[in-house]
Amino acid sequence: MARIVFDTGPLIGLERRDAHAEGWLQVAIQDGVVPMVPAAALAEAWRGGPRSANLARALRSCRVRVTDESVARTAGELLAVMGGAATIGAIVVATAALDGADVLTADVDDLAPLGEWADVLVLEL
Predict the structure, then answer these.
(1) What's the whole-model pTM score?
(2) Using CB atoms within 10 A of its CB, is residue 22 exposed (0-12), middle (13-18) or buried (19+)?
(3) What residues have CB less than 8 Å from 92, skipping those under 6 apart?
(4) Three-class SS string for the chain?
(5) pLDDT tens digits for the chain (125 residues)?
(6) If both were cysteines, with which of 3, 20, 90, 109 could 78 make a disulfide (CB 3.0 to 4.6 Å apart)?
(7) Pair 24, 37: CB distance under 8 Å
(8) How far apart are CA 51 and CA 90, in angstroms?
(9) Cβ–Cβ < 8 Å for 36, 95
């Protein structure tokens, strides 16, 4: 498996113990890949308390990536080129582009155009 960035959808899936999301995480772990989670996507998925216990466990196998200046600038460029794109989606794709990773999302229709522009493979959850 290639390096992978989890968008909000897979994080919500992990919180809900969705078989597809858990399967992607398990394959990554078996292949020695540490999934990356943009902090912005985590903020969108996290609700805290007992509700987030499953997600908290899953995050132990992931690396949360802060939105630093290079990610922010790349996301801004994506937003400029792809008018109407969501900021968090642009951050997710920018993270993948800078880290040479693919994106796993439940929102392929919105992220695929960003991925195409940034030369990032967008995979459906």
Answers:
(1) 0.95
(2) middle
(3) 5, 7, 8, 38, 40, 41, 103, 105, 111
(4) CCCEEECHHHHHHHHCCCHHHHHHHHHHHHCCCCCEEEHHHHHHHCCCHHHHHHHHHHHCCCEEECCCHHHHHHHHHHHHHCCCCCHHHHHHHHHHHHHCCEEEECCHHHHHHHHHHHCCCEEEC
(5) 899 999 999 999 999 999 999 999 999 999 999 999 999 999 999 999 998 999 999 999 999 999 999 999 999 999 999 887 799 999 999 999 999 999 999 999 999 999 999 999 999 99
(6) 90
(7) no
(8) 27
(9) yes
